[in-house]
Amino acid sequence: MHPELLVRKRMLLMTLALAGMFLLAIWRIGGLTIQEAEELTARGVSQWTKEGVVTARRGTIIDRNSSVLTLSATSYMLTADPRLVSDPELFLDTLAPVLSLSRETAIARLSDKTKGSVILKRQVPRDVVDQIRQLRQTADPAAGLNAIAFDEDSRRWYPYGTLLSQVLGLTNVDSMGQSGLETQYESVLAGTEGSYLRQVDARNRTLVGTEGWYIPSQQGSTLKLTVDATIQEICEKAMRECLEVNSADSVICLVSDVRTGGILAMTMKPDYDPNDPPRDDVETLTDLMRITAISDVYEPGSTFKILTAAAALDTGATNPADHFYCSARVTVDGDTIKCWGRAHGAETMAQGLQNSCNPVFVELALRMGTESFYRYLSAFGLGKRTGIDLPGESAGIMIGSRYVKQVDLARIGFGQSVAVTPLQLMMAANSVINGGKLMKPYIVSEIQTPGGEVLQRFNPTVVSTPIKAETSATMRELLQAVVDEGGGKNAAIAGYKIGGKTGTAQVYKDGRIVSDVHIGSFYGFAPADDPLISVLVIVKEAHVPVDFGSTTAAPFARQILQDALSYLQVRPSSDETDVEVQVPDVKGLTISQARRTLAEAELEMIDDGVSDVVLDQLPPAGATLMAGGHVMVYTSGSGNVTPEELVSVPDLIGLSDLDCARMLRLRSLAVSMTGSGICVRQSPAAGEFVAPGSTVSITLEPGGQTE
Question: Which of 78, 333, 386, 432 would be 407's cystine partner, CB 3.0–4.6 Å?
Fold first, then answer.
């Protein structure tokens, strides 16, 4: 080929090649500047800038005296630049002695080299941060600890530990409410997050003189509660003792201002420490977080008689001097309803309340009738939520008025066939003794700015007026007599007028009544003539042979009332002459010796009917009671039977000889029969506790004319 043509050909090829390369460059530049511009810009910005969130400090929760119950403490967020960590394994091994991290999660985050900063851990305490900073100075540079940075974070701190734990609630790692007041008032407590942006170099160091921004966060508002931390601590102490002494499954205590409906204390045990909750056991934590005082319902038993008595007096269906007769049982619609103990015989309505006599309250309910009785129960707030400012409240359970039978109405009269929450019962009972006003319970009194300025104030609210003021005054006198002369003696306090009512309720499991455990309770108030505070103590499934509310709950309600009245500077009445006495130790004594010892101390004794050596007592030795108070003693007939092994004697009255023998055999008891026909008498009496193998003597007569 001619040399000139060869040159031209080469020049043409070079021109085409250069043109192709130019077009490729143009195409690539176009792609970078048009199609990938947004992604590349974002990547570039992330490499030379660092942005983050300024966590808002969560609002504080204080008690009514401004004592801090919950606040947000300063902590730190540990971050790292993955681009500066060449060996994640070595990085984590070096950090392990001072900080525990999820290894799998941390390695995954450190392996993402597209990010300039990743979060390794939240809510790191200041002392740990100081240790990491010191370690960073001495560690091998190859470990890459220079990639670590710290941003301010916050964590929730509960100065009182377990105190009021379920009510205060929990927050998660992102400072969002999970339970209790923390979730109920999330929007109030959360505050507003801030943000920042700063320019950094390749080593994540801030470039001096460069532009950026910082928007500060705004702290959440403060919640001021009606709760009094001192009264709460009084309840916490009493309930710890109550739980232990009674070997109970759980205990609940509520204290309220009867005039306003404000909650002064709310204690539920077992509980947990919100500073160190068992987050690794979700089921346990969920159970412990529940506010059982407002979420769980139960048959209240005899404390409900407060409401029945008030309604019957208000309608004119009875009066304190009205006469009744208790034969220990009453038949309604063919069903036999028994009294809790032996027959009380002739008694007035006032005495029936003192004796907690079931037949009296059956009669009162039937006298009022469904329409009238239900109208009062509705006015007392039963069957509907109280509206307290806490999450998870139940409405209770009421049989619809259209479906109530006479026997249902009769049982409701003494606290069966109806289920309430502890808070419902307390507020209803409060209305009976505060002049007849059903108050809406509340636990937050004010919402304040962080500086203390009031943003919103919550005032007492009257929901209804179920009874007249005159009826309320009468009920205060009757309930004071229950403590002075009736079954509430263990709640009496020297120098103070105390009113109240005990209760022993049934326990349902799998839809059936469990006969060997109960729910003991006591509702009390003081001063009885001008009530200031009320207390409700509930002891669920006490594992002691006799679990009456008078022995399991009343002594602890007394303890709370006594300490609270002293703290509130309520002076004793000058005309009171009753004195306190110390409970002597009667363990190891025979029944007769124990009875004599307690009588010398001006105390009355209740025993379980075995009549041998005293194994245990409640209240324990050293406790104080009012003169005339009751001490429950647990005994063993054979000397080696524990209280837990004792057997309750069944009610045999009205049964045939075969039925009596079968019932006793099922309870490992022997029988001694006199006569033939129907059982008309038995010894020991129904409800008494005896050792297994004990003999029950029964008298049978034709026709069954019982005494």
Answer: 333
Q: Max CA-CA distance within the chain?
A: 148
Of the candidates 223, 254, 381, 243, the one whose C-alpha atom is nearest the C-alpha of residue 307 is: 381
CB-CB contact of 362 with 337 (8 Å): yes
User: Smallest Cα–Cα separation from 157: which of 63, 221, 73, 74?
Assistant: 73
Cα distances (angstroms) measured from residue 633 to each of 176, 381, 540, 555, 597 = 50, 39, 20, 15, 12
Question: The pTM is what?
Answer: 0.75
- Known active-site residue 86: no
pLDDT digits (tens, 9 = 90+) for 285-325: 999 999 999 999 999 999 999 999 999 999 999 999 999 99
Angle, helix 422-433 to helix 469-485, in steps of 10 degrees = 110
Amino acid letter for position 244: E
- Coil, helix or strand at residue 529: coil
Strand duo 580-582 + 499-509: pairing: unpaired
Parallel, antiparallel, or unpaired for β 630-636 and 604-607? parallel
Q: How far does Cα 551 stand from its chain's mean position?
A: 22
Residue 135: Cβ-neighbour burial (10 angstroms; 0-12, 13-18, 19+): middle
Write the CB contacts of 548 (distance below 8 Å, at least 6 apart in sequence).
Answer: 502, 504, 518, 520, 632
Q: 50: closest CA among 139, 109, 119? A: 119
d(CA 540, CA 538): 6
**How long a stretch of residues is the chain?**
707
Encode pLDDT of 184-221 as tens digits: 999 999 988 777 777 766 666 666 666 666 777 788 99
Structure tokens at 618: 């409640």
Q: Take residue 254 and report the two structure tokens written for it.
A: 């509520």
Please give the Cα distance from 423 to 445 (Å, whole number): 18
- Do residues 609 and 637 lie in contact, with contact meaning Cβ atoms separated by under 8 Å? no
Q: Which of 72, 154, 302, 431 is catalytic?
A: 302
- 494's tokens: 């020297």
